[in-house]
Amino acid sequence: MLKNAKTTGIWLLFCGLLGSLSGSAQPLHPHFEAAEYRELLLIALRTTDNEKYYRKYPAPQHYDMVYHSQEMGLDNRWQLWVNHQHTIAVVSIRGTTTRPASSLANLYAAMVPASGTLHLAANDTFAYQLAAHPRAAVHTGWLVSMAFLVRDIRPRIDSLYQAGIRDIILTGHSQGGAIAYLLTAYLYYQQQQGALARDIRFKTYCSAAPKPGNVYFAYDYETAIPPGWSLTVVNTADWVPQMPMSIQTVNDINSPNPFVQARQNMHALPWPRRVIARHIYNKLAKPARKAQRYYEKYLGELTSKYIRQKLPGFEPPAAYVPSSNYVRTGTTIVLSPGKDYYEHFADQASSFFYHHGIEYYLYLTEHKYHIQPTTMR
Questions:
Q1: Which range, 10-14, 54-58, 217-221, has the best average confidence (pLDDT)?
Q2: Residue 355 — left, alpha, or beta (φ > 0 → left; ψ -120 to 50 → alpha)?
Q3: CB under 8 Å to 54, separation ≥6 — which residues?
Q4: How many domains does the chain contain in total?
Q5: 210 falls within a domain
Q6: CA distance 366 to 364
Q7: What pLDDT, in 10s, does the model give residues 84-140?
Q8: Ramachandran bin of 42, using left for φ above 0, alpha for ψ from -120 to 50, beta for the remaining angles
Q9: Is 346 exposed, middle or buried (0-12, 13-18, 19+ CB in 10 A)?
Q10: pTM score
Q11: In a domain, 122, yes or no
């Protein structure tokens, strides 16, 4: 395991020389590859840092870990893996841990603009662009986590580039997958701005990931990232990809539309019909607006107070985006459990994370795509 940045760079340069001599490795391809994803799940198991958990499963067959980061931000950590041919690297982001700071990253679910600045600490401002659409917005907690992680990831990407590695997989399971969305968007715009080499090719696997932002972020992301280069893998029985809970109000819909103009049109109605129409409209529209404001209050303003306790000097945004319209993002790969799945995991049905852990996704992938099942130790 290599932790020193200089040592890592020298090692990767040596790997690049070996890779250029072999010339036999296959590059990344823009579609879901079950065997590739299975290997990433085995990497994700080790990224959890839970040795009792991952020791039950075999090590990845085609990759070696070359860097294991320190913990940072809201209990975030990542690992760098390189394949045996030294042509493809994997940035694996750890998911939620049992520590309070990690859960706070999930709970900090008020939205902020997908382009702007974060004040991470005193005299420490992080500028970012994750989308071009002016109405694009993302989850604040995972954006904060990504901001800390990317500062450690970028120098390693530079080392990979110097070593001749141009293909990089970005991945994470659960919270790690949510952060991987934002990391992918950030690196894409870094390339567009000329801050990162454009011939680096990123492929993203967001495994069991919750929803990262609103519909305008999804539109921008799915336009910017070519088809097949960003995949989100979902177990249909898993509750986490359904989070955060979405609240759509009339203000989340493009204009012109009949809902936004409805109140104005009511003035033209005769008195009895106008009163009835206004009553019905308010009954339909007000609960969603009220729920969204509660989201912003409790999962934004209140949660930020606890975030500041974990991150001294952090300054929450002056205002949050008045929206909680979270949507799925990226090309979705669906894993649907069958009778054999429920029989296999019957004794774990009472677990809080039943259907969500890496082992469930590993089982479904191997059975759906007819891969030799993993032999547990």
A1: 217-221
A2: left
A3: 45, 46, 48
A4: 1
A5: yes
A6: 6
A7: 999 999 999 999 999 999 999 999 999 999 999 999 998 999 999 999 999 999 999
A8: alpha
A9: exposed
A10: 0.90
A11: yes
List the structure tokens of 27.
């590059």
CA distance 364 to 376: 15
Segment holding 102, helix H or strand E: helix 100-107
pLDDT for residue 291: 86
The CA distance from 204 to 32, in Å, is 10
Q: What DSSP element (H or E) covers 44?
A: helix 34-47
Which residue range(s) make up the domain with 123? 5-246+321-368
| pLDDT > 90? residue 257 | no
Nearest to 209 by CA among 311, 139, 297, 307: 139
In the chain, the N- to C-terminal Cα span, in Å, equals 23
**314 lies in a domain?**
no
User: ∠144-49-30 over CA atoms, to 5°?
Assistant: 65
The CATH number given to whatever domain includes residue 109 is 3.40.50.1820
pLDDT one-digit tens code per residue, 344-354:
887 666 677 88
Could you give the angle at which helices 100-107 and 175-192 cross, rounded to 10 degrees?
Answer: 60
Residue 1 binned pLDDT confidence (cut-offs 50, 70, 90): very low
Residue 68: inside a domain, yes or no? yes
Q: Is 236 helix (H, G, I), strand (E, B) or coil?
A: coil
pLDDT digit string (tens) for 16-43? 444 443 444 678 999 999 999 999 999 9
Tokens of 231: 């995949």
